[in-house]
Amino acid sequence: MQPKIIFGAVAVLVLACQTKPPAISEADTAALRENVNRYVATSLAGDWDGWASQLTEDAIFLQPNGPAVEGRAAIRAWITAFAGMASFTATPVEIVGVSNVAYARGTYSFAMGPKAALQVSDTGKWLTVYEKQNDGSWRIKRNIWNSDQPLAAPAPAKR
After folding, report:
1. What is the pLDDT of residues 75-98, one digit of tens each?
2. Which of 41, 77, 86, 99, CA to CA, is 20 to 30 A from 23?
3. Cα–chain center distance at 126
């Protein structure tokens, strides 16, 4: 036999013998659902310290229409610039994970601003990657969200 064929056969056997990491437990799934609820509750309360405590130190937020915000401290500083949440819902539709990494995907709706006439609102979808910590808690490692609203039409070209 040629060495390439032998190596290929050995590689296939090694990969076939690999065990799949265990899926997260029902308790972990429930904890992740509770994390989403806590994320919403701390946002509505303006509890930015409690909100930021849900992030890993090296978390990254991939905001729409802006640069990535990197690190818990930078993300906390970024969030405090908002005018306050008048309403906010986040509904997880999928939670999947293995070992110490999981993701949740869902939909959101929010309004922010001090008065109804001044509020900005949006609906969309989100994807959050969580990392299980040594104490068993789950924290947000990466977060991205996108609006369901269409982009504004481009301005006509000037002649």
Report:
1. 999 998 876 888 999 999 999 999
2. 41
3. 6
State the chain's mean pLDDT as an integer.
Answer: 88
Alpha-carbon gap, residue 40 to 29, rounded angstroms: 17
Separation of alpha carbons 101 and 87, rounded Å: 29
User: Does 3.10.450.50 match the CATH number of domain 21-147?
Assistant: yes
pLDDT at residue 51 in the model: 96
Sheet of 138-147, strand order: 69-70, 55-62, 138-147, 120-132, 101-112, 85-98
Sign of the alpha-carbon dihedral angle for 54, 110, 126, 96: positive
Dihedral in degrees, nearest 10, Cα atoms 83, 41, 45, 65: -10
What does the block give as tokens for 15? 């990969």
**Strand, helix or coil at 135?**
coil
- Burial class of 156 by CB neighbour count within 10 A (0 to 12, 13 to 18, 19+): exposed
**Confidence label for 102 from pLDDT (cuts 50, 70 and 90):** very high
pTM of the model: 0.81
Coil, helix or strand for 64? coil
Please give the backbone phi and psi of residue 58, each rounded to the nearest 5 degrees, phi first: -105, 25
